[in-house]
Amino acid sequence: MLTKYVSGILSPLVGNIDSFIKDSKHFVDLIKDDKYEPKDMTVSFDVISLFTKIPLNEAIEVVKGVTDPLTAKLVEICLRSTFFSF
Question: How confident is the prediction along the chain (86 residues), in pLDDT tens digits per residue?
Fold first, then answer.
């Protein structure tokens, strides 16, 4: 299956950026030593249907920047051939 093949190529790239947060525990570990003022507030957002909200053109451009042209094309085929595409 093409998506499984592409996933195998992209999986090692996940988590290699500073803004990556794996889960709630990872987030807590990242901020546990931060100092906050009494007026500071922590806010949490619950994201619904995140996959369907990703702009496909931007996602494809990001993949083009971190992979080779063939992989980027395969990712584009996968993204544009799902029922989530708009």
Answer: 888 999 899 888 887 777 778 888 998 999 999 999 999 988 877 776 666 777 889 989 989 998 999 999 999 998 888 765 44
pTM: 0.60
Domain count for the chain, please give it: 1
Contact between 85 and 79 under an 8 Å Cβ cutoff? The reply is yes
Residue 86, domain member (yes or no): no
Q: Which residues constitute the domain of residue 76?
A: 2-80
* Joined tokens for residue 78: 């996968």
Taking the CA atoms of the chain, what radius of gyration do you get in angstroms? 17
Q: Name every residue whose Cβ is closer than 8 Å to that of residue 50 and which is 6 or more positions away in sequence.
A: none
